[in-house]
Specification:
about 120 residues, alpha+beta, single chain, three-stranded antiparallel β-sheet
Length: about 120
């Protein structure tokens, strides 16, 4: 991994643009501005990719911890019950408790509306 920061690259580009401006080379100045714009785009894309990698790593770690409780998935380190239907589709969605229904306590997925009774009360 490169140990160059955005600030370092920006400074180098500004220095180069200053030299080009001093030399009165409009084409070179224009190219440096183009390069600067592309660099900004690449830096933003790089940040987004790093964030996605981090999220995927977190999801993998979570998947290893999940256990099946009734029809739901549960992370032993959290209080949430996760929707089995959404989890099968690659999403981890916490279900909301719906207390005191006719059939007792129920959990419902806010994403797909999957509903099931509380697996802890049997």
């Amino acid at each position: 991994m490169l140990d160059i920061s955005y600030s370092d690259i920006r400074k180098m580009l500004l220095d180069a643009r200053e030299l080009a401006t001093g030399a009165k080379d409009i084409r070179l100045t224009g190219k440096l501005i183009d390069i600067q714009g592309v660099l900004y785009d690449l830096l933003e894309e790089n940040k987004e990719l790093k964030d996605k990698i981090k999220q995927l790593e977190n999801n993998k770690a979570l998947e290893k911890r999940l256990i099946k409780i009734g029809r739901f998935w549960k992370d032993p380190e959290r209080i949430y019950l996760y929707c089995p239907r959404c989890y099968a589709n690659g999403k981890l969605v916490a279900c909301d408790p719906i207390d005191n229904t006719i059939i007792g306590d129920v959990y419902e997925c806010p994403n797909c509306r999957f509903t099931s009774s509380n697996p802890y009360k049997r």
